Amino acid sequence: MCASQRIDKWLFYARVVKSRSLAAKLVQKSRVRVNGEKIDRASRSIVAGDVLTITLDRAIKVLEVTATGTRRGPYEEARMLYSDISPEPSPDEVKTPVAMVPLREAGSGRPTKRERRQIDRWKALTDE
Question: Measuring CA to CA, which residue among 59, 78, 65, 53 is closest to residue 6?
Fold first, then answer.
């Protein structure tokens, strides 16, 4: 294992993101902090003991680097590269999938299948 490694490679090897190019984009958008310092270069080196704060779509992960990787292996192997020290989400932050479904007022938007059939029946009656 290496003493230091590029941040984009490490994020890819640790299975935080699906590809190395996505890891580079994540870093360039300043969504990754190393030891509390914002970084914007994918070439930034990290070593064991660094603490990474990663802002993903709907979550913030705090990971402590325990080792640098040599390849993108299975999940069990990738899990050995870090320890997750993220704080537990508060009950207010945890949302059920039902609560995330957008609501719309009745009659707005496209008609449902049932409403469409009713419209077709009504049109058929008025055309006669």
Answer: 65
Looking up residue 38, the CATH number of its domain turns out to be 3.10.290.10
| C-alpha to C-alpha distance for 32 and 90, rounded to whole angstroms | 22
* Beta-bridge partners for 61: 54
- Determine the structural domain holding residue 48 and report its residue range: 4-84
pLDDT at 96 over 60: no
Residue 101 has pLDDT above 90, yes or no: no
The DSSP line for the chain is --SEEEHHHHHHHTTSSSSHHHHHHHHHTT-EEETTEE---TT-EEETT-EEEEE-SS-EEEEEE----SS---HHHHHTTEEE-PPPPPTTT---TTTTSPP--TT-SSPPHHHHHHHHHHHHHHH-
* pLDDT tens digit sequence for 45-72: 999 999 999 999 878 999 999 999 999 9
Sign of CA dihedral 33, 37, 41, 43: negative
